[in-house]
């Protein structure tokens, strides 16, 4: 079963980070990706640009509306994701607990709907 981890963080918590802090953070995430790969559960990941670069589009009501910024104005923003393939939610939770984002923000875990019956 595939699970996606949506990684949420408050950008204010990252504002103080130096280039050295970011380099260390990348190493921590690199080690996590390495562990996922070694376990044979890694599918995909991406780190997103800051929410300030977001553009939102809707065609609701038949009219295109393009908005600068995110869909929702929230304190915590989506910063990236992981997709893993594990047997069940318990295994997904075990990997989510190891995710570096869980220590500074939140990890939302969602099972895939593709192929679900």
TrEMBL record:
InterPro entries: Dimeric_a/b-barrel (IPR011008), YCII (IPR005545). Residues 1-110 form the YCII-related domain. It comes from the Bacteria. Belongs to the YciI family. This is YciI family protein. It comes from Tateyamaria armeniaca.
